[in-house]
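User: For my dataset I need records formatted as: sequence, then structure tokens, nothing else. Please produce one.
Assistant:
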Amino acid sequence: MIQNRLIVDMARRTMIMAGVAGTVSQLTGGKFANGAMTGAFIYMFNHMAGYMKRALYGNQTSYQRQKNAEKMFDTASMAGAGITFLGKQLKNPLLIEVGLGVEVGGTVMKYLVTPDKIKDYELFNEILPLPLQVTPAE
């Protein structure tokens, strides 16, 4: 019942946005249909982006997101310590260096993360090489 109401509400709002965007397009010399389709698409895209964010994070505050990020970096640090331990047992200098790097990197990242820096993409951009980083269009 609630799901149906949400779908009807989204459809209604999409049609309203299509009408507004189509009218603006017509008034500025474009085609109504092109403006309406663009407006509807933009509304639905933004609606789905918000839906996905709520599905992923729920109603988490920035503090909760920070604590989750800290847990992630603590886990990375512990994994690095495990790799270092394994490297020492196997007398493998490469494993020791990789383990130390992951351990120190996880610890440093834990203290670099602050609530104002936590965004979906920024956590990953700080640890990814430049060609793999994401820059959103804001």
